[in-house]
């Protein structure tokens, strides 16, 4: 996410010549009294009269400066630091509504046990779940009865996440556990581009700030980045820093591509088609524009990491450590969002040394580890995992 300024308003107030502490205001009060010819002879700190005056004037003044001016008025004057209802008012000024949390919706592929057989029904409300990820199991349920025709080996069913949130936008293969066996069904899984609608959390204030800032540039609906970025960001799961543009006339003069990315998981073709429909068919584009929405191109990498666990770990702890390392590395490659690690990005350098440090911070069972790859220079692509190997050493 782009850096958002965090100014020190207390320092700015001081630089403007406004006192911010009691000692300075006592001096100001004494000087003002002297200017008005009001001499206070008994100004000792033991004087009840002078102490009353100081408390009545100075304490209230310092409170107004510290709490009202520095902590509320100045921050809410500027978009970069506005918060709460003041930020929502700034959104209203440019006709933006904060995005609410939504459930992920996508496709699960069910596979028949045998090569041939009678028609099978995948019942509505059938659950498919993940293995535990950082202690959490994620579940999706089938939305309607889905029939696998006779002798067909696979069928795709539409599913919806159990709860709202971006955490359900997992990568391919995560949803593969059938908690209740289905007669005649051998396996179920989500493929890479399984998401029809990305799940999302309530829009946080930094994300809203960036949408508001972008809206100031989007008032003219012409072929400019801001106008299209504003339109794309209304969709759940697409943030300011997940939209990239190609301006090198990919289909001839006057053409451009908008490459979109999700924080986790892959956008489905249905989602891409929906966005293109809104732009081209609904007419939300400038005269003569030719903008095509695409998923961010991917580059696949075979990643391997050598791990030396702490010698005191028993077999079960070693197995759990290996699983945790796999999930954290997958989080770095945008397959889940359960760990706070640096993720791959387009037009960036992905540092494995940084990831090694983050793994050490998150997992106490690691004595040492080393990735066998050099840093990844991504250009206008998103690095993905082709394979991941964790080599546990004795």
Which segments are poorly predicted (pLDDT under 50) over 5 or more consecutive residues? Answer: none
Helical content stands at 25-40%
Question: For this entry, what is the oligomeric state of its chains?
Answer: single chain
The structure class reads alpha+beta
How much of the residues is beta strand, in percent? 15-25%
Note the main sheet: 6 strands, antiparallel
- What is the overall silhouette? elongated
Number of helices, where a helix is a run of at least 4 consecutive DSSP H or I residues = 9
Throw out a few tags for this protein.
394 residues, alpha+beta, 9 helices, elongated
In summary, what is this structure?
With 394 residues, the protein is an alpha+beta fold. The chain has 9 helices and 16 strands.
């Amino acid at each position: 996410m782009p850096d958002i300024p965090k100014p020190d308003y207390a320092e700015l107030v001081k630089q403007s010549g406004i006192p911010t502490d009691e000692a300075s205001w006592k001096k100001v009060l004494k000087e003002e009294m002297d200017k008005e010819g009001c001499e206070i002879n008994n100004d000792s700190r033991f004087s009840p009269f002078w102490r009353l005056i100081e408390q009545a004037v100075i304490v209230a003044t310092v409170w107004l400066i510290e709490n009202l001016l520095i902590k509320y008025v100045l921050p809410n004057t500027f978009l970069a630091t506005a918060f709460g209802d003041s930020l929502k008012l700034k959104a209203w000024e440019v006709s933006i509504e904060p995005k609410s949390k939504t459930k992920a919706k996508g496709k699960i592929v069910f596979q028949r046990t045998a090569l041939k057989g009678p028609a099978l029904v995948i019942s509505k409300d059938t659950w498919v779940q993940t293995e535990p990820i950082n202690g959490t199991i994620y579940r999706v349920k089938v939305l309607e009865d889905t029939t696998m025709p006779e002798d067909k080996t696979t069928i795709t069913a539409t599913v919806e996440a159990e709860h709202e949130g971006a955490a359900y936008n997992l990568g391919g293969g995560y949803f593969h556990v059938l908690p209740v066996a289905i007669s005649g069904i051998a396996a179920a899984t989500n493929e890479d581009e399984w998401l029809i609608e990305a799940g999302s959390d309530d829009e946080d204030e930094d994300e809203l700030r960036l949408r508001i800032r972008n809206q100031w540039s989007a008032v003219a609906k012409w072929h400019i980045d801001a106008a299209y970025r504003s339109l794309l960001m209304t969709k759940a799961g697409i943030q300011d820093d997940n939209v990239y543009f190609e301006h090198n006339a990919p289909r001839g003069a006057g053409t451009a591509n908008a490459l979109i990315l999700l924080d986790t998981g892959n956008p489905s073709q249905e989602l891409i088609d929906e966005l293109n429909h809104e732009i081209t068919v609904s007419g939300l584009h400038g005269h003569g524009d030719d903008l095509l929405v695409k998923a961010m191109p991917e580059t696949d990498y075979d990643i391997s990491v050598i791990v030396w666990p702490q010698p005191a770990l028993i077999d079960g702890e070693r197995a759990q450590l290996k699983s945790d390392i796999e999930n954290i590395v997958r989080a770095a490659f945008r397959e889940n969002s359960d760990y706070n690690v640096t993720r791959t990005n387009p037009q960036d350098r992905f540092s494995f040394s940084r990831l090694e440090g983050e793994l050490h911070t998150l997992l106490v069972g690691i004595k040492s580890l080393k990735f066998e790859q050099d840093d990844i220079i991504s250009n206008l692509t998103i690095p993905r995992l082709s394979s991941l190997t964790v080599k546990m050493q004795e």
